[in-house]
Each structure stands twice: as C-alpha cells, then as structure tokens.
C-alpha cells in the first residue's frame, strides 16, 4: 500500500510539472524542442489517415446496416466477444410474408401465384444481400477496424511516449540553463580581497555546489537526449508504415467495389427474370388499372389491327414460319368473339401478324382461333 501511495504521489507530481510546462510553452515562456519538417509531415499524414479512415468506416457501417439499433447490438456482441446471432435480411422477411399470403389466397389463383414468384425473387435478393454484407465485412470493414484498433493505437501510444520524452528533454535543458546561470552568478560573487574569511568560504562553497549541479544536469540532458532520439526513431518508423496501410486499404477498397458490383448485377439479373415471368402488363382478371401507352385521343382514333370490324379472325392465316408453342399461365375468359378463351397449363400455338399490338398474339387450339394476351402465356422455345 505504501508503494502505491508513493507511486501515486510521484505520478501526480510529474503530471503537475508537465501541466505547468505545457502552459509555459503555450505562453511562450519556455523553450520547446521542435521536430524536423519531415517528421511533422508524417504526423499530419497519419492524423489525416486516421480521421478519414474512421469516417469511411462509420459511414460504410451505416450503408451496410442502416438500422442504428442493429448496429449497437452488433457492437455489444463484439465487445462481449460473443457470436452475433443470424438476422434475416429485409428481403427474406418480405419473401416470407408473401409466401404465407400466397398460401392464404391460394397458390392456384393469379394473385397467389404472382405472390409466389415475387416472394421467391425477394428471397434470392435477400440472399444476395446477405452474401454482400458478409463479403464487405470481411474484406473491407475488418481491415479498417484492425487499423483503428491495432496499428493506430500503437502509433498513438508511441507518440504519447515521444511527447513525454520531449518534455523530459526540455525540462533537462531548462535545468541546465538554470544551473549555468547560477554557477556564473556564484562565480562572480566571491571577492578574493574579502577581509572576512567566512563570506569567502560560503561563496566558494556555493560555487562548488552549482558546479556539481551543472555536471549532474549535463549528464541528465545527455540521457534525456538519447531517449528522445531513440523514441523519435521508433515513432518515425511507425509513421512511415502509413504508406503500407494505404496500399492495404486500396486493395480492400477494390474488393469492396467488386463485391458491390457483383451484388447489384445479381439483383439486376433476378429482377429481369421476374419481369419476364410476370410479363409487361397486369392480368385483366386481377382488375388492376394498367396505364396504356399513348394519349386517350390516340387510342380512340387509332383502330386496332385485329379489331373485329377491320379484320375477321377466321380470315387470319398463320405464317409459314414463326409459330411457337406457349403454355397458359392463368385462366382467361374471352371478352368477345375475336378472342380465345384459355385454361391454365394448356399448350397452344401462337404467332403474330404485321402491325399487331405487341401485347397480343394469335392463339390456336385445334380448330379454335383468337387473340390471346401475352401476359397469360409462357412462350416455349
């Protein structure tokens, strides 16, 4: 206990003396050992690297996990050194809701079957997002965090130690300067013509004491200078390693960009597949108001190439080539005699005519013939 109290008192004394020294340096009342220009540039470069790395790291966390509550939870698990429990992505949760809704509405209904298709696409999107988050965390976030929590802490510790060595060196310089001034003053005071031997003895004794103090201060200065130079070299080597840190972060940044590009490519691919499955128009049986292209006046003034008044379906002949097989996705009831009623899962022959609306095809089933909507069909090769 006695040792701890003494150490505490010693540390408090050192802290107080250094605080006074800092204040005097700020007020210009004490000399300060300046570092060379190259060293100052290394310090500025290191501080810039730390600040921007920290900002990029924090914003990347926000990009990968926008939910602040989830980020705090992951942070606590990391600090407690516990495994983070698996968490479903938003796309996977939405997929689960859509698939459950499809069961309630009936998988055989147009709405239910569409929910299944969209839900499956959302599940794949969620899976791609999970892979992207894992890849980005390993290849980008982890190296940045390792720098901030590892290399930068080492650099900060050595910089603090260097600052303490500088303060000790400046304190030794101040003591040496004070000792030289006192010795000069003591040497000037003795009067060898002094008639009182006692005064001469006292003056000579003071001069000897200050001479001894001067030798001691010079020895302490040499030790402090050696420790400062050694610590400056260690800190310089660590600061020069920032260049290697930049190279490592550059490689990680490229891997992050590649992972992000792969993720968006997968999402684009999945959405294109979903669009092909759903078609370009909403099924009429769902009674959804799909917006037609063109103005209302254009639609009224331009007759359909396959309108029953201008073209009789019975007169339409299939082309010599270009017919295809198609599978019917949903039941469809013909609106008039020019259209063909459809039954889900049946196979029909389809083809198009010059000038025909791209949303419709001519369908044939045996001797029956009529217009059929493209969105109800799956074209087979």
Question: How is the topology of this model organized?
Answer:
Layout: H1 2-26, H2 37-64, H3 68-79, H4 90-105, H5 110-188, H6 197-240, H7 242-278, H8 296-301, E1 324-328, E2 347-351, E3 360-365, E4 368-373, E5 377-379
Helix pairs in contact: 2-5, 4-5, 5-6, 5-7
Can you describe this structure?
The structure is a single chain. With 381 residues, the protein is α+β, with helices and mostly antiparallel strands. Helix content is 65%, strand content 7%. The protein contains eight helices and five strands, in the order H-H-H-H-H-H-H-H-E-E-E-E-E. The chain has helices at 2-26, 37-64, 68-79, 90-105, 110-188, 197-240, 242-278, 296-301, and strands spanning 324-328, 347-351, 360-365, 368-373, 377-379. Strands 4-3-2-1-5 form a five-stranded antiparallel β-sheet, with no helix packed on it. A hairpin with an 8-residue loop joins strand 2 and strand 3 (360-365). Helix 4 (90-105) packs antiparallel against helix 5, helix 5 (110-188) runs antiparallel to helix 6 (197-240) and helix 5 runs antiparallel to helix 7. The longest helix is centred in the middle third of the chain and has 79 residues, at 110-188. The protein starts with a helix and ends with a strand. Residues 198-202, 281-297 and 299-311 have low confidence and may be disordered. Homodimer, and heterodimer with SH3GLB1. Keywords: Coiled coil, Cytoplasm, SH3 domain. Pfam families: BAR, SH3_9. This is Endophilin-B2. It is found in: Cytoplasm.
